[in-house]
């Protein structure tokens, strides 16, 4: 075998701007192909190994990361493996990293090396060949899609632990929402996560991207093996409650070794409410739509964790149904039914989708249908249209004016606050008009929200966190109680109880004038996204990857006209530097922004930076809330604290 030539042919196609991990993966691939087949290491093999090793070293050196010691000249496959096992400890994305870096709880977190980090350190002195992914015995047999697949995967959510599995063996499948749940990726070995691209699922959602990942085909092969063992796999769904789960208790490399259970969600059935209950609770002020049984609804595809495309009597609709925290479902339903119509706000629900429940022998409302807007959300449309020269300045201005008009309608006519304004929640109708959707009123993440909302939300997150010291938790709970007595009841439980005014604590703390100022801020951020043709204000969001990552970040400008820049700047007065200015996601890791193009960022540095930043943010938030409380008590508080324009003024500016 020709070692140097083989290495060159494998490594040359790798583009110079590809990430470090891609380079290492390609190099390891070569070693799997050329080293492992040899059971005896003769001189020729040793020479080939040394040549290949030097090529890998050159690739990694060009990425400015010395994974291998230049002086090392491994003379065996085992020695080579030991050298490759020496890695730098970095901050992997996980649910724990959300707590320790992304949430304000980071201010009270102390860096602790993960299991992977400790294992990696141990391997620096003793690399276990028996457990290595380079060992042929430890490989996954195949990640090719099954022949004649019995299932398909329409996407995933919950940080890569929940997959939308759709049976292909059921004709005209109703939207039962029986998803597949796997162990949290962070609890699995690094080798398995890498082989299955598991860490990528943390921030990847859509079907197209998910279909390319190893975990998707691995799940499909596991489901294929499992369902093939049933005489009639359709019986899996027999009498299952809506939103039940197919749970993988483990995730082995051998598909036959997977332990699978079906978990009926009887607790969800108990939360679901009947039409009679809703009519009695809401009274004559709310007219409910007609009902349709879930078995008369045909599932087509999953668009979002709570939204799927369905067909009823030959027509396509959006079906909204939640598999947890059903209180948000019924709250949104009532909001939509009470809301006076507006051309740029989603129209009232058309059907109530019902299902007979085994619990209490009731027929419960599990969701509702809405008009389907074929073009989808502006989040992905705007950059796509800009890229292909299919959106004009007039289009952007029209959409912006329509959004301002819709917000005015909500504020002055419907008397609702709208805390969910972002491009994800704006769809384009068949006539290419902007339509606002999603009225659960949960709110948006801090990169989109106004600083007034963030100040309260930071306090709330600390007040409900059970992992920080109880005294600290109690301190912030007390601050929140001073603003909104009884706030705890808004967050308790998943079920809907009447009467209810919603469950958004920060927005419930604000006056109507403050709410309007915060809506203006969010509108300014959305206007920036529209005119700069980006999916979001910041790139490489922790939660989500975009088909077109932003090339410019808020508040920078490249193509926005000057008058619009002035309006956006006025709307977003009071904006603060976000954590993303210091820490960003680089593929599946959190790294220091200033070290993003190197491999020098460490987990300890990331956590320390986040802790310091959050400590300052929390202190500023507490001071601002104290100032607000004193001002409101004395009657001197300016409710439009940052002197932003009103919704009417923004509307008039866009119309002029």
UniProtKB/TrEMBL annotation:
Its EC number is 2.7.11.1. One of its GO terms (molecular function) is protein serine/threonine kinase activity. This is EKC/KEOPS complex subunit BUD32. Component of the EKC/KEOPS complex that is required for the formation of a threonylcarbamoyl group on adenosine at position 37 (t(6)A37) in tRNAs that read codons beginning with adenine. The complex is probably involved in the transfer of the threonylcarbamoyl moiety of threonylcarbamoyl-AMP (TC-AMP) to the N6 group of A37. BUD32 has ATPase activity in the context of the EKC/KEOPS complex and likely plays a supporting role to the catalytic subunit KAE1. The EKC/KEOPS complex also promotes both telomere uncapping and telomere elongation. It catalyses: L-threonyl-[protein] + ATP = O-phospho-L-threonyl-[protein] + ADP + H(+); L-seryl-[protein] + ATP = O-phospho-L-seryl-[protein] + ADP + H(+). PANTHER family: SERINE/THREONINE-PROTEIN KINASE TNNI3K-RELATED (PTHR44329). It comes from Epichloe festucae (strain Fl1). InterPro entries: Kinase-like_dom_sf, Prot_kinase_dom, Ser/Thr_Kinases-Pseudokinases, Tyr_kinase_AS. PROSITE patterns: PROTEIN_KINASE_DOM, PROTEIN_KINASE_TYR. Signal peptide: none annotated. Component of the EKC/KEOPS complex composed of at least BUD32, CGI121, GON7, KAE1 and PCC1; the whole complex dimerizes.
């Amino acid at each position: 075998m020709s070692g140097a030539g083989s290495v060159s042919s494998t490594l040359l196609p790798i583009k110079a701007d590809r990430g470090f991990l891609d380079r290492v993966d390609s190099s390891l691939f070569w070693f799997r192909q050329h080293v492992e087949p040899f059971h005896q290491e003769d001189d020729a093999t040793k020479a080939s190994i040394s040549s290949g090793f030097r090529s890998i070293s050159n690739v990694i050196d060009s990425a400015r990361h010395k994974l291998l010691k230049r002086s090392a000249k491994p003379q065996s496959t085992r020695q080579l493996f030991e050298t490759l096992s020496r890695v730098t400890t970095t901050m992997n994305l996980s649910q724990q990293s959300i707590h320790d870096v992304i949430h304000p709880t980071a201010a009270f977190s102390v860096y602790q090396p993960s299991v992977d980090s400790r294992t990696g350190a141990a391997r620096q002195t003793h690399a276990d060949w028996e457990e290595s992914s380079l060992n042929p015995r430890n490989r996954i047999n195949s990640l090719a899609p099954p022949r004649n697949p019995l299932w398909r995967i329409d996407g995933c959510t919950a940080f890569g632990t929940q997959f939308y599995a759709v049976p292909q063996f059921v004709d005209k499948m109703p939207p039962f929402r029986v998803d597949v749940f796997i162990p949290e990726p962070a609890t699995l070995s690094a080798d398995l996560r890498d082989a299955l691209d598991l860490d990528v699922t943390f921030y990847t959602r859509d079907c197209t991207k998910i279909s390319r990942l190893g975990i998707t085909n691995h799940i499909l092969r596991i489901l294929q093996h499992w369902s093939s063992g049933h005489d009639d796999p359709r019986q899996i769904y027999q009498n299952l409650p809506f939103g039940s789960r197919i749970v993988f208790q483990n995730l082995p490399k051998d598909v036959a070794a997977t332990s699978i259970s079906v978990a009926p969600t009887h607790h969800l059935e108990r939360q679901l409410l009947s039409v009679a209950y809703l009519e009695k609770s809401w009274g004559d002020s709310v007219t409910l739509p007609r009902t349709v049984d879930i078995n008369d609804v045909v599932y087509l595809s999953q668009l979002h964790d709570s939204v799927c495309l369905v067909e009823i009597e030959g027509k396509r609709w959006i079906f909204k149904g939640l598999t947890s925290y059903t209180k948000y479902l019924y709250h949104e339903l009532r909001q939509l039914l009470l809301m006076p119509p507006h051309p740029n706000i989603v129209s009232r629900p058309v059907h109530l989708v019902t299902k007979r429940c085994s619990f209490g022998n009731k027929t419960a409302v599990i969701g509702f249908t809405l008009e389907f807007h074929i073009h989808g959300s502006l989040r992905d449309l705007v950059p796509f249209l800009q890229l292909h020269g299919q959106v004009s300045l007039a289009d952007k201005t029209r959409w912006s004016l329509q959004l301002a008009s819709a917000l005015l309608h909500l504020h002055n006519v419907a008397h609702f606050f709208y805390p969910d304004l972002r491009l994800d929640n704006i769809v384009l109708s068949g006539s290419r008009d902007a339509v606002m959707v999603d009225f659960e009123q949960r709110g948006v993440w801090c990169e989109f929200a106004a600083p007034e909302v963030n100040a309260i939300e930071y306090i709330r997150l600390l007040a409900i966190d059970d992992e920080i010291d109880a005294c600290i938790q109690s301190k912030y709970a007390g601050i929140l109680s001073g603003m909104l007595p009884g706030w705890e009841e808004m967050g308790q439980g998943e079920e809907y109880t009447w009467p209810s005014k919603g469950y958004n604590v920060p927005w419930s703390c604000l006056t109507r004038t403050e709410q309007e100022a915060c809506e203006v801020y969010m509108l300014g951020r959305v206007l920036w996204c529209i005119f700069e043709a980006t999916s979001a204000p910041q790139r490489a969001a922790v939660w989500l990857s975009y088909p077109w990552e932003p090339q410019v970040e808020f508040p920078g400008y490249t193509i926005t006209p000057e008058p619009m820049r002035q309006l956006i700047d006025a709307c977003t007065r009071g904006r603060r530097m976000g954590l993303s200015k210091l820490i960003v996601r680089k593929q599946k890791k959190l790294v220091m922004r200033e070290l993003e193009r190197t491999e020098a960022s460490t987990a300890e540095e990331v956590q320390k930076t986040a802790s310091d930043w959050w400590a300052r943010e929390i202190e500023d938030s507490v001071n601002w809330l104290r100032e607000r409380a004193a001002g409101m008590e004395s009657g001197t508080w300016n409710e439009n604290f940052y002197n932003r324009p009103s919704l009417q003024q923004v509307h008039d500016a866009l119309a002029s």
